[in-house]
Amino acid sequence: MSSVPAKQEPATEGTPPPPSGEVLEVTDLSVTYAADRGPVVAVDQVSFQVGPGEFLGIVGESGCGKSTLLFAIAQLLSAPAAITGGSVTFQGRSMVGLTDRQLAAVRWKDLSVVMQSAMNALNPVRPIRAQFADAMRAHGVRSKAEIASRSAEVMKMVGIDPVHLNSYPHQLSGGMRQRSMIAMAMLFTPDLVIMDEPTSALDVVAQRSLMVQIKELQQRLGFAVIFVTHDMSLISHFSDRLMVMYAGQVAELGATQRLFDQPLHPYTAGLMEAFPSIHGPRRQLTGIPGSPPNLATPPPGCRFEPRCPKAMERCVATAPELYQVDGTEVRCLLHEDGTVEEKTA
Amino acid sequence: MTSTSDPAANGTALLRTDKLTRHFRIGNALSQQTLHAVDEVSLTIGEREIVALAGESGSGKSTIARLLAKIYKPTSGEIYFQGKPVAGIKSRKDRLRYSGLAPMVFQDPFASINPVFRVSHGVLRGLKLHRPELSRDERYAEACRVFEVVGLTPADEVLQRFPHELSGGQRQRVGFAQALAMRPKLILADEPVSMLDVSIRIGLLNMMADLRDSQGVSILYITHDLASARYVADRLIVMYAGRVAESGPAEEVMANPRHPYTQLLLSAAPDPRAPLGVGAETDRGEPPKVINPTPGCRFRWRCPLAIDKCHQVTPELSQMTPGHQAACHVAEEGAEVKAFG
User: Fold this and answer.
1) Chain A: nearest CA to B87, how far in angstroms?
2) CA A159, chain centre distance (Å)
3) How many CB atoms within 10 Å of residue B115?
4) Taking CB atoms and an 8 Å cutoff, what residues of chain A touch B283?
5) What is the C-alpha to C-alpha distance for residues A158 and A176, in angstroms, rounded to an integer?
6) Per residue in A225-261, pLDDT tens?
7) Interatomic CA distance for residues B331 and B181, integer angstroms
8) ipTM score assigned to the predicted complex
9) In sequence order, what are the residues at sequence separation of 6 or more whose Cβ sits closer than 8 angstroms to the Cβ of residue A161?
10) Ramachandran sector of residue B292 (left: φ over 0; alpha: ψ -120 to 50; beta: rest)
11) Phi, psi (degrees; rounded to nearest 5) at A48
12) Distance (Å, rounded) from C-alpha A151 to C-alpha A136?
């Protein structure tokens, strides 16, 4: 194994982007799946930034493109999916078009990904210790003592007795497996950790304690987090900003508290009405009727129009852009004039 | 809504279990051990009632569903369905009849429907097997009827689709339609919504309430999400490590949880409408595998209120208020229990 060159590798050709202070900048990113019946645009011109130490939540239903977006950021897409437009800038250099070797230098060290199912992400025939060691050796750590001590350190960080380093994945509970994935992501204290529904296979108590743990680690070590989930209630107390995706596009992007207090997009409002509460009066909820559109043939106007309780005539044919409303971005014609108040038809 | 009193008391119980116990042998010939999956669970499900069975992974909730469906045989204890012991059901005919009266709906709608057949296949096969008196046309009409009831419209068209053409929520509705076609009295629903998107779940919960009200079926709703249990269930049974920790009218148990474990579950439920309760009470424990247990409360290792008695005597369910029971020594003595949240 050749030693991996460090970060002085030049970025892609062309002028390097000006340093912006953001950890990650995604600009007009589009991802297309080449399907038999024509291309399917799963991620459509998505733009957002993540600042140092920021916790960004991404919410949406199955098939809204949130996982595809994560894969595109981490350069994990494989055919038939491909980035067809836009850029991903991580720490000031473009991620799109990097070779596998260049990516290997970044992965785990500066950017880690925690997948949805730890059971499938961990190697079932090797103990946790060996898998940690692999990641460290790949980044040039040779000393066995160093590997052992760092492995034990990160396991303690996530609240697991380091004795479990000798365990195989099947010997751990679901919560512990997911925690050891997060420990592995912490090996080099990266600047950005991408998490794809890490808690969805866990039950509520384990889920809650894992979320608290992620938040504690994030505040202590100062890394940024992109956290994808379909459960808005889960991240309400944890994320700084929230991005709501619908049918491959950004529907609403703004401060978490703001979105919960006053959702602007009818889809965001619908998501908020979709989960029952253990507090307050017991009342009938309706959820969101219907299902997301087929992305091979998206509706010509607003993509949410067929399911929207506030749809107007114009929505059928006019595709809304992202409008700036009081620090929030929202894709809805009701807020076309940039005010919080909804326009009357 | 059903009455909130205990259905056992007024004789309307559809299903009743008496000290239902299921142990599993684990280990090899040299290290024989016994896993206590379910221990002495006595519960009742009334007519037209949704009973939520809540608890973490490994608390024995799915084992109970399988015992009630006669997939497992109890180690000891008995199940009574409409007053008759289920263990007495032996012949193929009686077994078929029972599984039609108490069908199961499974957790994973992607794995529980055969992908190579149209969705009509499953429901028509079920009808052929369980209701042989129906003619071919009647079977089809019945399939259309149950698809309409669960909200898969137009039924005629949906019946012709393949599972991969349906969303997760629609597939789970197919599961309920298949169960409903047998004219059941009790549907055993094992985490029916946990694999679905949050935005889809509420529609299914509403459908379950509608099945109770319009079709008169009872539902055993197995879940680890207390918020959804509160939304849909009439009564709530909380399990921990194979035993019932607390049971009672759903609203009453939520408003006034007496078992520390119920309080832990409540504090863990994500709720943006509540202030964030992250802090010292955050629990890092996990439910135990109950192997060769010794007497004592099984929650004592995670319980901040555990007293000496909890380490020696297994707490029995005792009445808190009418219909509301908890198995906790501290609560039994009338003390204010405030462990989590």
Assistant:
1) 33
2) 24
3) 9
4) 205, 209
5) 9
6) 999 998 888 888 889 999 999 999 999 999 998 898 8
7) 44
8) 0.77
9) A155
10) left
11) -165, 165
12) 9
